[in-house]
Amino acid sequence: MNQINYSVYLYTALFLQLVGLAFVVVIDPYIRRKHKRILLLNVFLVVSLIIQNYMDYALKLNSSSNFALKCWAVYGYAIRPVIITLYLYIISDRKKHGVTWILLSINCLIYMTTFFSHICFWYTEEKYFHRGPLGFSCHIVSGILLLEIMLISIKKYRAGRRTESWIPIMNAVTIITAILLDTMNFVDVEPVSFLTIAIVSNSIFYYIWLHIQFVRGHEEDLKAQQRIKIMMTQIQPHFLYNTLSTIKALCKTDPQRAAKITEKFGAYLRQNMDSINMPDLIPFEKEIEHTKLYAEIEMTRFSNVHVNYDIRENDFKIPALTVQPIVENAIKYGVRIRDYGIVNIISCKKDDCYEIIIKDNGIGFEPDKIADDGKHIGIKNVRERIESMCKGSLLIESIKDKGTTVIITIPEK
Question: What is the mean pLDDT of the chain?
Answer without folding.
Answer: 83
